[in-house]
Amino acid sequence: MAATIPTLDSYTDYDSFLVDHFDPNAHANSIIHQSAKGDLDIATSLSSLSFSIDSLNKQLHNQVTTHYNDLLSQAAGIRELETVLETVKFGLKTLSNSMERLSLKIKTPSEQIQTYTMQLERLQAASEMLRRVLRFLYLSKRLEMQMPGGELELTQAALTLSEVDTLLQESDLEGIHVVDQEVQSLESVRGRIIDSADRMLQDGMNSQNQAQVGSALQVFYSLKRLDLKIVAMTSYLSNKLHSQIKLALDIQSLQKEAKESGTNSTTGFVGGGVRRNNGEPSVGAAALWTSILWKRMERLMDDMYTGCIKIYLLERVLARKRDPLTQVSFLDVVSTSMDGNMVHRFWQSLSVHLEQELKASARSSQFLHQAFIDGFPRLLNLLHEFFSRVSVHSATATSEDVQSPEIVLMFRSISSFESAYKAKTAQRNSHR
């Protein structure tokens, strides 16, 4: 702009009018303020403004005259651009209307589809829930009908109860009134089934009835309690034999039994001939005490035999029974849960208990210590007879007993008496 301003008005300050947010009132007040101070004359300022306005008008006129054709062409272009803009606006409006119509065509069916889909999912969920509830009620009714039956019905009842448990685990039926009522009675039914299976297992093991034992084990397997039951049963048999070993070797019990045998005038002792100072038998009563001791050991071998054949019966039935789906034998399932062979663990426990009690009894009583050393051949013979009887029920032949781990464990439990007996025999032979 400064280059187009004529030389006559080059002294005029146009910069003050080019600032952003120019305020004419503020500019006029500034001129009046300067005039009041005597620095500037208002008339002169007005004349200068009038002159500047005229100069600017002339310049604008010159610019229009000089660029007339260009301005006309730009004006025509603006009109064409307005026409194009109108066309574009119309197209956008048409597109917007089309979008609205398309939205109505798509949005409404989409919302309906979502609603119908949600309804379908909920109907399917409700239908599945009802199906499971009906299945649960059917199984509960069938379980009620199976309960009064015998062995076959008991195993079927256990399978039904297992299916009920699986159904309850896979389905959230909690809060359904009719289901909650039945669930409360299921625990009572479960207890009755387990009690019946316990009695069946005990009866079967006592009578060596494999069918009864198999049915009882099938019940526990169906209820997913087989490993727990086998562990409990082996522990029970082991603990029972431990108690029987302790009773057979208990010196106080032996003394009581000797006293109850009465008076024997020929041997010169009364009431079993017990010395009052240490509870040991008198010289004349030693024979009676020894007789009672070995009768007890014979009964103990019978008790051990009974416990062992029960364990072997369990092993045979567990090996024969299999899962109907996986065909895995019950014995493999139990061995995995027990982390080892059931029979070997039983024999190991039996031999440890026998060794502990024999040593404890020998330490507590000089009579028992001497009786087992002097009577070691008889003790050894009892063990051989015991293993001969047990071998009929085990997979090990009689001729192979010496090499079996069970025999090694049991003979190890009496090794201390064997050593003492051999030493005493060797000493006796050396004096001859």
Please tell me about this protein's structure.
- This protein has 432 residues and is mainly alpha-helical.
- Among the domains are: 2-66, no CATH class; 232-431, no CATH class.
- 77% of the residues lie in helices and 0% in strands.
- The protein contains 15 helices and no strands.
- The chain is elongated and about 165 Å long.
- The N and C termini lie far apart (152 Å).
- 21% of the residues are buried.
- Residues 1-5, 263-271 and 397-402 have low confidence and may be disordered.
Q: State the helicity in percent bands.
A: over 70%
Strand content: under 5%
**Quick one: overall form?**
elongated
Order of helices and strands: HHHHHHHHHHHHHHH
What's the helix count? 15
List keywords for this structure.
single chain, mainly alpha, 77% helix, disordered N terminus, membrane, Conserved oligomeric Golgi complex subunit 5, COG5_helical
Gist of the model:
Helices cover 77% and strands 0% of the residues.
